[in-house]
Design brief:
Largest sheet: 2 strands, antiparallel
Strand order of the largest sheet: 1-2
Mean pLDDT: 84
Low-confidence stretches: none
Number of domains: 2
Strand content: 5-15%
Number of helices: 2
Shape: elongated
Number of strands: 2
Structural class: alpha+beta
Oligomer: single chain
Length: about 70
């Protein structure tokens, strides 16, 4: 249980730090507007899917989880 507690505390701190960065406006200019993100608009209809942004976040989280396992 000791390892689980450490993991939860570290995860909570990282999530809090990431939330504070997003809330402060960090990355607002480029996050979600990367080349490859899909944006389609016509009239009153807008469709937006940030596929490249999702991929980069996934890679980052995978690397972080891999580092914490070792």
């Amino acid at each position: 249980m000791n390892d689980l507690g450490k993991f939860l505390v570290i995860s909570g701190l990282l999530l809090t730090a990431a939330g504070a960065l997003v809330w402060s406006g960090f990355g607002r200019a480029w996050l979600g507007r990367l080349p490859g993100d899909i944006h389609y608009s016509r009239g009153n209809f807008n469709f937006y899917f940030p596929i490249v942004t999702c991929f980069l976040v996934s890679v980052l989280l995978t690397v972080l989880m891999w580092l914490f396992r070792k």
